[in-house]
Design a protein that fits this description.
Length: 178
């Protein structure tokens, strides 16, 4: 993934995220991006250091995450903006948990838009979640953020042909009710 992603591609990827789903027009997310190899390596190192403090299978996952991040040449972190929760607090029918779940769904759409756009441009991507479970504060400090980190996406050009992961049989995961 050493080949640099053109700035026009990066902007198109981010723009597709910005045009993702929204709740009442609030766009309850913040997209933080970096192509700084120093910053990306520092985040990868956080994951690698954590891998030395845990048992398998988490150790393997965090080492793999670190390797993936290290080879990326562009990284996006998507944060939850909780302003919507503050605005919705005046409505008694909505609990913060339900609003938060709705925001996470919206952010999922934002991330998917960026991943699909990257793919259409020939750019590989990986949606990474493991560091946010263990080292969100360290990542936030590096990126000077105070919001809730929901997703990280590493982008680059693959060095080899990638395989899609296996999926469960259709009949096992899809149910039609008539």
């Amino acid at each position: 993934m050493d080949k640099k992603i053109p700035q026009a591609h990066i902007e198109k990827i981010i723009e597709s995220g910005v045009w993702g789903f929204s709740i009442l027009g609030t766009q309850p997310w913040k997209i933080v991006s970096t192509d700084s190899k120093k910053m990306i390596s520092a985040i990868a190192n956080i994951s690698l250091l954590r891998s030395g403090k845990v048992e398998n299978p988490l150790k393997t996952i965090l080492k793999s995450t670190s390797k993936t991040l290290s080879s990326a040449n562009f990284l996006i972190c998507v944060y939850m903006d909780k302003t919507l929760m503050e605005k919705a607090g005046k409505y008694k029918n909505f609990s913060n948990l339900k609003i938060e779940r709705a925001i996470v769904q919206v952010i999922g759409g934002v991330v998917q838009n960026m991943i699909l756009t990257a793919s259409s441009l020939g750019v590989a991507s990986v949606w990474i979640d493991s560091p946010i479970f263990y080292d969100e504060d360290k990542i936030n400090n590096l990126l000077s953020q105070r919001k809730c980190l929901i997703a990280m996406i590493a982008f680059g050009y693959p060095q080899r042909q990638l395989k899609r992961s296996k999926r469960k049989p259709y009949a096992e995961i899809v149910e039609y009710i008539k």
